[in-house]
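Q: What does the assembly look like in three dimensions?
Context provided by user:
Components: two
Sequences:
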Amino acid sequence: MKNLFKKELNSYLNNPLGYIIIVLFGIFANLFFVKDIFIINSASLQPFFSLLPWFLLIFIPAVAMRSFAEEKRNNTLEILLTLPYSETQIVLSKFLSILTVLFLALLLTFSLPISLLFLTKIYIPEVIVGYLGALFLGASFASLSIFFSTKTKNQVVAFLSSLLCLFFLLVLGSDFLASFLPKIFQDFFSYFSPSYHFQNFMKGVLDIRSVFYFFSLTILFLFLTVLELEKRD
Amino acid sequence: MIIFSSVSKVFGQKKAVDSISFKTKEGEIIGFLGPNGAGKTTTMRLILGYLKPTTGKVSVGDFDPIDNRIEVLKQVGYLPENNPLYLEMKVDEYLNFIACAKNEKNWQNLVESVGLNEVLNKKIEELSRGFKQRVGLTAALFGNPKYLILDEPTSGLDPIEQEKIRDLIKKLAKKKTIIFSTHILSEVEDVANRLIIIYQGKIIYDGKKPKEKGGVEKLFKLKIKAYEKSL
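A: Here is the predicted structure of the complete assembly.
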């Protein structure tokens, strides 16, 4: 498993594209936050965290699109599946390598809370919970994007299909959609949206229901990916 | 021992493999001969548990490749058709990855005997076809597998490289069961000690290889003609 994880992580870190995606994420996340903070005039990371799902909506599918689609296109999936590794080990190693890339990208945004610390007082547990939420959100996005990557040989198709699906899930919890729906449906749909659950983390609240939601979503798509690999016919 | 008992594999409407049965013995080099689309690759993938049989049973050693895929894969070395490799990796990086997966500790010795030392630091994409094939074959040998499954191991190589790969297979034959697929008749004549002819998913011949020169070709044509007549 360690061997597989190392190989997967190296496939990102030995590739200039991997660095470009990580650095672009860092630049845009910092830029958008700095742009807004002086307008809002509030020393809080909430503006950053409220934008984060939309950054991850592009970042995670861009990182995950190659995970299986590229293996299928190059026929190297046959190498992986004829080595003494289980399908679960293969899927988990890919998933963990994407999470590591996400962690590296989030590291680039640590400049935001650090610079705020110099300017004013910030409530550190709130920041920690926010970043924890970002990891949970990223993990669920990654598992969904990996699943879509098993469905095609084409990386662009994998990227667009996971992006569309994640966009739909995010919009489910938006005020825009809610305005069209009766109250009972608003609550029902928004509960299935990652943005609804991420709001708890943004506020610094570690709600066990939201943890359970992200955990379930992640496990569900990892499980579906394993099933998809087991099909093979 | 690899045992196929009335194994069929159907893809949609097409029967890729149609109720085939055979048993292998230790030390055999089995030439799996057939035209393109005859069912050679499907049969090999069934041995590895990469595909599930539609009907029938496959066993490798004491294991079922579907129920005990990992146990089977520990005993089998596999060179897939067209030899897919991680082209962006360096040769030593790739071999190290496969060696770790197959728990092979002394892979450097094997690399030396196959003549890969000079290209260890090169990226796989920079290698010639012959060297790429050697990389694939070396990876298949890691973990000292009991069974070697080689799917068209010389396809796309020039005659000199083909000869080298054949010599390597013969050298490896000791105490291993080797199944190699090919559509090159002379290759079977040169390397195999048992011949299985597969045609339209059915085994139409399973037995000793003819000893006389050109005998494989004669037998191959004869068996296909007889099969087509019987339809």
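Follow-up: Chain B has a mean pLDDT of 86.
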